[in-house]
Write a structure and sequence with these properties.
The protein is an alpha+beta fold and about 450 residues long. It is about 25% helix and about 25% strand. α2 packs across α9, α7 runs antiparallel to α11 and α9 packs antiparallel against α11. The protein starts with 6 loop residues before the first helix and ends with a strand.
């Protein structure tokens, strides 16, 4: 399990906590009011803020009366947060390993940080700690580079460091869309302006992780370049204060919480060339020999072949395993399909699962992955063959390597299942899946 913050973020933000507090903007009142309303923040409810930093948003949410648990993994940032926002309870931890019991919070908010998270692991943890129907809000202040001097500021940062975050941290929205644990994101944008002095602009720049983590010569050169920019640009020359404009995006979604039964949904589709973990993808096709684009390293006597073409696991099992202190997230144990809302106790050899088709009724989450097969026929249909025996390849996820934690003989409710493919078809996150009895 990823239990430490991204090395660049830890190094950069750890060195720049004071500059972050001085130079980073707050959030526009309209955006804060929107978050309070969307998340129903009020006395008697519990809010978890992930990657809380120095509490820039935290302090603006305190007046709502909600109890705030502010999780921040970087010690220097957390120390500022504790001093500046005494009404919030600071927590040490990461979004990928939240130190809270299941279904213990009413809402989750993340400000200026979600792009740093390991998306599928963080979303799995957020789903675990949220109560049914709980909501999540993600927000960012994005500099408005349609303003010429702000665009030049961004070009200076890009030229010196390559950008504000490594390319591996980009594309967070696409990664969220690969997870069916939450409803599709909705977005609202607000305008915001930060009034800064020259030193304030420099603090704003130095608080950027890639700048704070850069070599002193690179950082000093960038500071000198920005001083020159502010002294010579027609929009800033001769001024002592500047309006730095932002677009503030607020994204929100709700936890999908179907009651386990005969109808559920695909939480994640996971493939790779072999080994664990398998990574989430946008979707693929279920073929007779397994998922298109997937591979495995074991012999067919262990995994693969027609009778072990597809491996299944339950998000509810993932969350139970996490509650016990072991590592678990979609794809961790090599399953191809992570399902939500299927009653795992009802599984047995011969039970069939139909994807995106049939009259199995609606599930709370809807059919986000599509319905009928593209050729006009019915969707994919698979039949369970046997429980998957845990192997040593996943032992590192368990305390003392106790892989029996997911053995069908010991914990049938938390074991994986293999299936053969009776009918091929597409599969994607959010797609409806329904359980068909063995004699159905």
């Amino acid at each position: 399990m990823t239990e430490t913050v991204h090395p660049l973020a830890a190094r950069g933000f750890g060195a720049a906590a004071d500059a972050y507090e001085r130079g980073r903007p707050d959030y526009p009142a309209e955006a804060v009011a929107s978050i309070v309303d969307l998340l129903d923040l009020r006395p008697g409810r519990v809010l978890l803020e992930l990657g809380a930093g120095t509490g820039k948003l935290t302090r603006q949410l305190v007046p709502s009366g909600v109890r705030i648990l502010a999780l921040e993994p970087v010690a220097s940032m957390r120390a500022v947060l504790a001093a500046v926002v005494p009404d919030a309870k600071p927590l040490d931890g990461t979004a990928e390993s939240i130190p809270l019991p299941g279904q213990s919070v009413d809402a989750v908010v993340v400000a200026q940080a979600f792009h740093w998270f390991d998306t599928i692991r963080a979303l799995s943890e957020i789903h675990r700690v949220l109560r049914p129907g709980g909501r999540v809000a993600l927000t960012w202040n994005m500099r408005d580079e349609s303003v010429p001097w702000v665009r030049r500021l961004g070009e200076c940062i890009e030229g010196a460091t390559g950008g504000e975050a490594p390319n591996s941290q980009h594309g967070w929205r696409e990664r969220v869309d690969r997870c069916g644990l939450f409803e599709p994101l909705e977005t609202t944008t607000f305008r915001h302006v930060q009034r800064l002095t020259v030193d304030g602009v420099l603090d704003r720049v130095v608080s950027i992780s890639t700048v704070a983590a850069a070599a002193p010569s690179v950082r000093d050169g960038l500071v000198a370049e920005i001083r020159t920019l502010l002294a010579t640009d027609p929009d800033t020359a001769g001024r002592t204060e500047f309006d730095l404009p932002y677009d503030t995006d607020v994204h929100w979604t709700a936890r999908r919480s179907p009651v386990p039964g005969a109808v559920g949904l695909v939480a994640s589709v996971n493939v790779n060339s072999g080994g664990v973990p398998k990574a989430p993808v946008d979707g693929t096709r279920i073929l007779r020999v397994g998922l298109e684009g997937d591979g495995h390293r074991e012999s067919e006597s262990i995994h693969g072949g027609l009778d072990r073409a597809v491996c299944l696991y339950a998000q509810e099992a993932i969350e139970r395993v996490r509650e016990g202190g072991d590592a678990a997230f979609p794809g961790a144990y090599g399953e191809n399909l992570t399902l939500l809302g299927i009653d795992w106790w009802s599984l047995a050899p011969g039970v069939r699962l139909a994807f995106g088709a049939g009259d199995g009724g609606d599930v709370e989450a809807g059919d986000g992955g599509g319905g009928d097969d593209e050729d006009g026929g019915a969707g994919a249909l698979i039949e369970l063959t046997e429980p998957a025996v845990p192997r040593q390849s996943i032992a590192h996820y368990f305390a003392e390597r106790r892989i029996a934690r997911v053995s069908h003989k010991v914990h049938p409710e938390d074991a994986r299942w293999y299936a053969r493919v009776l009918r091929e078809g597409p599969v994607g996150p959010g797609m409806t899946v329904r359980l068909v009895p063995a004699d159905g």
